[in-house]
Design a protein that fits this description.
It comes from Aureobasidium pullulans (Black yeast). By secondary structure, the chain is mainly β. It contains one helix and 27 strands. The strands form seven sheets. It has a four-stranded antiparallel β-sheet, with no helix packed on it. Strands 5-6-7-8 form a four-stranded antiparallel β-sheet, with no helix packed on it. β21 and β22 form a beta hairpin.
Length: 309
């Protein structure tokens, strides 16, 4: 079962994290398996390519940094409490330590952010020294395209915006009614999009005001990504569906559904699974969308749209 997907910055590779401890890397052109990195006795839940595409970070019980070409392990990042059961894990009777469900690089490659939701822990790492810079309370994180903002989802109702440079809190977004399932930044770094249930909400970062709401009447949203110009938003849904939205008008331009997209209740290792793994890599007028399906395949779509007004 795949837990995470990531395109390389140059669009030539796609990597997938599996519950069996593997990080697999394929050619997007041929589908050929190019590299496999493996962690023993842990499941790999997240991964991310560095901006130069030469290294890949994987998250399991620890963060590991690998050479993409050779598959060689370069660094293991550890912090306080790693490999220990968190309070929430003990409370719910889990037998595995807290795990890293999200890793992401800043666009300049100088910072790596990791997230352990069970421990409510967001960590910022310096990639020159591979040492821990700062720890913030939270369950999800995202860095704005201009690297100025670090957004942290503290809980279902609160997102905090920090200055990436020094970790200073700048603004707090709250929605106690609809709540936040996840978020992503717009390309101009002035808008942040959140989703809850079947709704996608766009917020002004400076004022904290809600700008617009997009609603899918058929499926709950599971993930999303903006086009480079911010005019198009592509969202994944439960059961491996896809939506293409016009941001300005709020209209849904394309709906794709798949008969074999229903998720199994449990993965091959017996763990309960969530929404489909999803990643998007967009350029001007074109891009690729990848979805992981329950049958163990990763499917990639080439997409194009007109630049004409």
């Amino acid at each position: 079962m795949f837990f995470g997907l990531a395109f390389s910055p140059d669009n030539t590779l796609i990597a997938a994290a599996t519950d069996e401890g593997h990080g697999r890397i394929w050619s997007t052109a041929t589908g050929e398996l190019k590299q496999t990195v493996t962690v023993d006795d842990e499941r790999t839940l997240s991964l991310a390519f560095s901006p130069d595409g030469k290294t890949i970070a994987t998250g399991s019980e620890l963060i590991r940094i690998w050479d993409v070409e050779t598959g060689e392990l370069q660094h293991i990042l550890t912090g306080p409490g790693d490999r220990k059961l968190s309070f929430s894990a003990i409370y719910y009777g889990h037998v595995w330590p807290s795990e890293i469900w999200q890793v992401l690089f800043s666009s300049d490659g100088k910072k790596l952010v990791s997230v352990c939701p069970e421990a409510h822990c967001v960590r910022i790492w310096d990639t020159e020294t591979w040492t821990l810079d700062k720890t913030i309370l939270g369950q999800e994180a995202g860095i704005s395209p201009d690297d100025a903002h670090l957004a942290v989802r503290v809980n279902d109702t609160t997102i905090q915006l920090y200055r990436t440079l020094d970790g200073q809190l700048q603004r707090t977004l709250e929605d106690t009614e609809k709540k936040f399932a996840s978020f992503t930044f717009a390309p101009d770094s002035k808008v942040i999009a959140t989703h809850s249930g079947s709704e996608i909400m766009l917020w002004n970062i400076e004022s904290g005001e809600l700008i617009k709401t997009l609603e899918d009447p058929e499926r709950k949203v599971s993930a999303f990504s903006f086009s480079p110009d911010g005019k198009i938003l592509i969202s994944g849904t439960r059961r491996c569906g896809l939506r293409v939205w016009d941001v300005e008008s709020g209209s849904c331009l394309v709906r794709l559904e798949h008969d074999d997209g229903a998720r199994d209740v449990q993965s091959s290792c017996g763990y309960i699974t969530g929404p489909p793994a999803f990643d998007v890599l967009l350029e001007d007028g074109a891009g690729k969308v990848a979805l992981a399906f329950p049958d163990g395949t990763v499917r990639i779509w080439d997409i194009e749209w007109s630049q004409d007004p």
